[in-house]
Amino acid sequence: MDPLSVIASIAGISTAGITLSRAIYDAISSIRNAPKEVSSVAKGLCDLSVILRELRRVLKDGKDVYRRKLIRRVASAIRRVGRVQSEIKELLDGTGTLAKLKWIFQKSRVMELLYAIESHKTGINIILQTMVLAVQLKHLSENNTKTAITNRANETDDNILNDAILARHQAENMVQISFHSLQDLKHEVNRSGLSPEEGEENSANEEPQTQQVQLRNPQTSDDALWLCDLVFSPAIEAAAELTQINPSLYSSSEDGEGSSTAISSSQVIVTQYNSSLTRLNTLTQQQQPESSMVINELLSEWTTLTENEIEGIDRAGQKGKIASPEPMSNSTEDVVQMVNFKDAVGRKFELPFQLIRDWAGMEKIIKQMFLHVEVIGPHVQAGHYDLLNSRGNIVLPALWELSVKPTDSFYMEMWPMDLPQSVPQRRPVGPEPGSIRPRVLPPQAIDVRNLTQPKATAGKHRA
C-alpha cells in the first residue's frame, strides 16, 4: 500500500466532507423546525474534515516515524468515512423535496449517521494525536542526544520537553474520550439492536431471512467494533499476553474494518455481530485501561520509535508536571556566573566569570570598554589603572586569577595623570608694548637752535 496515495486520498475525503456539510446546511435552512441532530451531522462532517487535513500534514512531515501498519489503519478509516459520505450524498440527491424531508425527520436514521461520524472522528483524532506525540518524542530524543554531546542544557530543551508532555496529555485524553464513546455506542447497540444472548437464541431457532431482517443494519455495532479494535486492541492483546489469556477473542482484522466487509452468509453476519458485542462488552464492563499504557502500545505498533524514546517523558518526570531537564553536571563551569564591575568613569557592567577568570581576559575586556574614550582611553590602553575589590584593596595582575571569585565586585581607579609639559615663554626685555605712553612737549619747549641740519653730500664740485 503506497503511503503517498493514502495521504493523497485524505485530501479528497476532507474536501468532500466540507462540500456535504455545506449541502446539509443548505437543505435545512429552508425547513422550519428541522431536527438539531441534522445540523450536528453537518458539524461533525466539517470537524472530521479539519482533523483529516491536519492528519495529512502530520503524515507528510513525519514520514520517517510511522510504520506501514499505521498506513493500513488510515486507509481503512478513509474507506469507512467515504462510505458514510456516499450514504449521505445519496440521501441528499434523492428525487424531490419529499425524499429529503423523509430522512431529515427520520430521527433513528439521523442518529445512526451521527454515531458513525462521531466514532470515526474520535478514531481518526486519536491517530492524529498519537502521530503528533510520536513526532514530538522523536524530536525530544534527538535533542537529548545533542545535549548529551555538548554537555549543556538550555531553554530550548525545556520548550521541547514541554511540547512533548502536552502532546502526550492530549493523546491520553483522546483515549478517555474513545472509552466513553464506546460506552455510548454500546448503550445505543443494546437499546436499538439485539443483545448477544438474543442473537444466539435467534440464530438457533429462526430462519436466516428473519435474522437478516432483525440485523438489517448493524452499522452502530460495527462502528463500536472498529473503534475498539483501532484504539484498544494493542493494549488488550498486551495485557492478555501478560496474564497468559488467549488473545484470539480480542485480535483485530488486518485492516481494522471488522464486519464492514459484505458477506452473503447471514449466519456469518450473526457470528461477527455477536463477536463484536462480546468484545465490546468485555472492554466496557472492565475498568478503563490506563491511558498511558494504551498510548505506549499504539506508539509501539504504529511507529518506529524505540522503547527508550517512547518512555523518554516518563524518565523526565512526566507525572503531570512540566519538568525541566536536570543539569548535566554540578560543577560551576556549567552555570553562567557573573562578576560586577564598575569602570573609572562610573559605568557598571556584569562580566561573565568564564571570560575574566585570568588577567589576560580581564585586560582585554577593559580595553574594549575604553576603545573609543578619548580622554583617558590612551591611558587605559597603556595599563595606567588599578583594580580594587569590594574591600577597597588593590588586586595585582599577577594575583588576579587567585583573587577573582564569582559574584564578587570590583571597581577601577586611574593613576594620577601628569600635566603636559610646555616650553616657557621668554619675557621680553624692556617694557611691554603699550605700557608707556609717549610724552608730548609743547612747541615753546623745543629749542630749534639745537637742531642740526644734514650735511650736503651731493651737488658740490671742486673748484
TrEMBL record:
Taxonomy, superkingdom: Eukaryota
Record domain Azaphilone pigments biosynthesis cluster protein L N-terminal: where: 1-141
Region (Disordered): 191-217, 425-463
Domain named Ubiquitin-like: residues: 337-417
Signal peptide start-end: none
A Pfam family matched in the record: PigL_N
GO biological process terms, semicolon-separated: regulation of DNA-templated transcription
Name of the protein described by the UniProt record: Fungal N-terminal domain-containing protein
